[in-house]
Write a structure and sequence with these properties.
This protein is mainly α. The two termini are 32 Å apart. The protein has a single domain, classed as Growth Hormone, Chain: A (Up-down Bundle), CATH 1.20.1250.20. Residues 371-380 have low confidence and may be disordered. The radius of gyration is 20 Å and the shape is globular. Helix content is 75%, strand content 0%. It contains 19 helices and no strands. The longest helix has 33 residues, at 188-220.
């Protein structure tokens, strides 16, 4: 529910651009400023050790409340102003108190099923990320409905988290130890698990951020489809493509706890990288055929995400789990900034037929780093 805020502005970009006049650069900022905020928020959290020193439920609640308020504030602002970009930045920064903290809370209940537990949480994140596209379809051309609905969801998340019971594996530390973040690199298995995650992140959020516009442009290229139908079907298809990733997270978690994390992550990255290469070839093709490929992409592109985080949970000292997860996600999302901004330039230069192809480099290279790591295989 809280992560529905992440793509709330991205999902309504076509409607905003139809109603207001702003540059492609401003549109890119509306998408990327969330990731910039998240990177800044997670870096601060990791250095201060907030995920391991603050009460998890309180940190989650205050973060979700602030993010909901920042998202709702956009309804009162001029969408073409920089203040909207600032609100998106604040929203992203607050997600640093939601996503890594949520993984830590889930991990407190792990008993040889870390992959499944974290997979369920990342699956929930995936569905939450898809919600804005569904709200956008339900609300028609009124982008205000989507922003309002996602803020209400985040408010509900802030209230509900107080009813979460933490598991017996919760470990906290009281000391301020900024040097603790170096453990992510001094420990070789941790370092290799992180490198695999970074390759995965090169692809994931750029795909999620731009798949809606890609599908919309592809549907518009079909002469028999009207502009209104193209927008509606693109929103519904985007919700399905991103949301189906929850199934990939669930299956990835079930198999990883049984056959090993390395096997699952390498297979997922091979499939998603191939989809990134093939998607452009189906641009303007039969919608059902393109949707089928994108659904496979949606499942595989996030199936490995939870397993990299699970590896960090299992390889870290219990009192540093929150910090290690926060550092992993911080650098991972820093990488997404490059590809999220790169896609629009590639579309202008070479068209949608080839714009997604460079994303394949991340999972393909990530397979080598992950496969060489004994720490990413099933433990215990």
């Amino acid at each position: 529910m809280a992560l529905a805020l992440w793509f709330s502005a991205t999902a309504v970009l076509p409607s905003l651009k139809a109603e207001f006049t702003f540059s492609d650069g401003h549109a890119a900022l509306l998408s990327s400023s969330v990731a910039v905020g998240f990177v800044c928020g997670t870096l601060i959290s990791a250095i201060l050790g907030l995920s391991d020193r603050a009460a998890p439920r309180r940190l989650f609640m205050y973060s979700a409340l602030t993010a909901a308020a920042a998202n709702a504030a956009i309804l009162l602002l001029d969408p073409t102003s920089f203040s909207v970009v600032a609100m998106r930045f604040i929203t992203g920064a607050c997600m640093a108190g939601v996503y890594p903290v949520g993984m830590k809370m889930a991990a407190t209940w792990a008993k040889k099923d870390t992959g499944l537990l974290v997979g369920l949480l990342v699956g929930a994140l995936t569905i939450g990320s898809a919600f804005p596209h569904l709200f956008n379809a339900a609300g028609g051309v009124d982008w205000r409905f989507t922003l309002g609905a996602t803020s209400v969801l985040a408010l509900g998340a802030a209230l509900m988290v107080n009813f979460v019971t933490l598991g017996p594996a919760l470990a906290m530390r009281s000391r301020f130890e900024p040097a603790a973040i170096l453990k992510a690199w001094s420990n070789k298995p941790l370092r290799l698990a992180n490198l695999g995650y970074f390759g995965h992140m090169w692809e994931l959020y750029a795909m999620w951020a731009w798949i809606g516009l890609f599908l919309h442009a592809s549907f518009l290229a079909r002469a028999e489809m009207s502009a209104s139908d193209a927008k509606l079907y693109a929103n519904l298809a985007s919700f399905a493509v991103i949301g189906v990733g929850a199934l990939g997270c669930l299956l990835g978690g079930l198999f990883a706890d049984r056959v090993g994390r390395t096997t699952v992550t390498m297979a997922a990255m091979a499939i998603s990288g191939s989809c990134a290469l093939l998607a452009g070839a189906l641009f303007g093709a039969e919608p059902w055929l393109l949707l089928l490929l994108c659904l496979v992409w949606g499942i595989s592109v996030v199936a490995d995400s939870a397993q990299f985080s699970s590896s960090v949970i299992e390889l870290s000292e219990q009192s540093y789990i929150g910090t290690m997860l926060t550092m992993q996600t911080s650098i991972g999302f820093m990488i997404t900034l490059a590809t999220t901004h790169l896609i629009p330039y590639l579309v202008d230069a070479i068209g949608w037929q080839y714009a997604f192809a460079p994303l394949a480099a991340g999972p393909y290279l990530g397979r080598f780093g992950d496969g060489s790591s004994p720490g990413t295989s099933r433990l215990g």
